[in-house]
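REQUEST ID: PR-0412
SUBMITTED BY: lab tech R.K.
PRIORITY: routine
TASK: structure prediction, single protein chain
INPUT:
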Amino acid sequence: MYLREKFSLRTSHRHRYHYHRCYQFTNNSRRNIIVTKTRVMNSTTRNNALTNNEGERIVNGSCYCGKCELTVIGKPIAVSICHCTICRRLSGGPFSIQSLHERAKFSCTVQANDLWSIQSSDNVQRFRCKECGSPLYATIGKAKTFVVARSCLKGIEKDDLDFRAQHHLHYSQRVIDIEDDLPKFVGTCAPGRSIPWTPEKSRVQ
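STATUS: complete
OUTPUT:
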């Protein structure tokens, strides 16, 4: 199990930093595996969006009960609609929508016993609130990238350009057809491993 903890430290009268520490729990032992540092910026509201002094957008989110809170900064690396059987089973829906963020652009404020996690594949660790069961985020690539559930982010409208879905993943595993103009992939969209989905491929399957 991985746990991300946030704490603050003021290094001078002008500067304050947030530190994000990630723990790995194995056999009742705790190992500190990574610490990242982020400068805390004053936030302002521009065009109805909360931004920091660097002009990066700040988006907050939480689980259903509000016990677990998270924040993402700036535009996502990507926004995906995933149709894989794992995402469908764990979300309870016909597909899931999530945004990918760099580790330094993500923070989650929780207590150690507020999160429940599952290793759903070799490269993916998923976290949800232990109290209400809401899916929150997952880590991939040795916790270098944080995958945040769209359902827990606040203030994201359906036509929000920053968080608009960019493609469909694992479309060959879908349970419903989605008729849109977004690129569709048989499985992943990772460079060198992506296979575009076409109706012809669907008939062969």
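NOTES: The two ends are 36 Å apart (CA to CA).
REVIEWED BY: pending
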